[in-house]
Fold tRNA pseudouridine synthase A.
Amino acid sequence: MTRFALTLEFDGGPFMGLQRQDHGPSVQQAVEDAAFAITGEKVTMHSAGRTDSGVHALAMRSHVDIEKPFDPFRLMEALNAKMRPDPVAVTACEVVAADWHARFSCIGRRYQYRIRNRRAPLTLTKGQEWQIARPLDEQAMHRAAQFLVGRHDFTTFRSAHCQAKDPLKTLDRLDVRREGDLVLVEADARSFLHHQVRSMVGTLALVGLGQWREEQVAQALAARDRQALGLNAPAEGLYFVEAIYPAG
Amino acid sequence: MTRFALTLEFDGGPFMGLQRQDHGPSVQQAVEDAAFAITGEKVTMHSAGRTDSGVHALAMRSHVDIEKPFDPFRLMEALNAKMRPDPVAVTACEVVAADWHARFSCIGRRYQYRIRNRRAPLTLTKGQEWQIARPLDEQAMHRAAQFLVGRHDFTTFRSAHCQAKDPLKTLDRLDVRREGDLVLVEADARSFLHHQVRSMVGTLALVGLGQWREEQVAQALAARDRQALGLNAPAEGLYFVEAIYPAG
């Protein structure tokens, strides 16, 4: 048995999410079906994050265990060939130790959220950004974001379907910056609650639009109540960017 | 009568090209049909470039003449509303002098060509980049590109369907650079022949792959013969980036 770590890039648009679902296509199913077609083995893929329908990944980390011997480069090529034309690609594949786990060994996760702040509808990036027509004050958003950095009870910013036992999480970084008409939010943490990034971004957008004062974000956090949430940002602007593992 | 200059962004994928065609949808038809729906006037759109099927634009410049009085912001909003869900957007609209012409007043055009240099298939940028699996030497490509800069007879790099009277063109800049696994080619000229950028990029790719020596690009140019062309790069990696007009 060999454990292969996979780096996955995918367009979340046509999927019901990363995790296997009964009611539609998933990234997990795409990879597992391709692995079965190649190896004849029923594998289970584990991943650093469990992204929702419509959420994209630039470099999700996952692993699968395969009995038959395979060269990692050959496995990557075969998986990519089998998955066409699904918008999932294995961009890297390596053999890892049997106790390395894409989810449980992961000590850091980075998400990026892309807001296109302009009047005109999206063309080339349709389904890949959240369009907000009215001008956003990204500096106010960045200042308000700093209320969320640190160790907090993030109940306000958590989906009703979140399965985590503990709403206490440490948010290491939440930066907002502008590049032309693109407003980028980057979030780093060891782990996130379900919908946490989208909930934080949606609420910061209200600050950026001038509908919320910056301090209201701190009040919403302190409320520890989903009803205090400003807005949940749509899935299509969210990207899983990086999973971090201990060196060695 | 008022002349409106439009800045257009579009995904060229679903169109037969910018110019109106008998056999399928075009960007020109999308804009003209929207203008007709709004104004009741049959307008003709003129544009800085005439991009092929599959070629994209970040900021094409065009103009239309409209008899009814319109505020340019309102016209832009109405055009964008009517063109949904076609992937064309008017990102700017302004009133210009009656003798300003999107095509004939234009004194500079900039194109960008995007090559994704990796094994893995494209996901998020499918139809928006040319994927080349084998490693490209972008520095050799840049050196070879310099043979093409200047005033030359570009017959070798011209489509058989090119309607320009004169194959003599002045190429002001042709730069190749790498950003991670993205190899970017940027071309500046007052005007280009049909397929010129794609023909230059395709031929430079052969140099990047080591199939052509750098000097062969100079020899192909000197041949003034379409048969001497290395390769025509696919439309999907090409972007019309900027049209330049005299100040004032």
User: Anything to note?
Assistant: Residues 2-96 of chain B form a domain with the Alpha-Beta Plaits fold (CATH 3.30.70.580). Chain B touches chain A at residues 9-11, 56, 58, 76-77, 80, 83-84, 87-91, 118-124, 126, 128 (CB under 8 Å). The helical segments of chain B are 27-39, 72-83, 138-145, 196-208, 214-223.
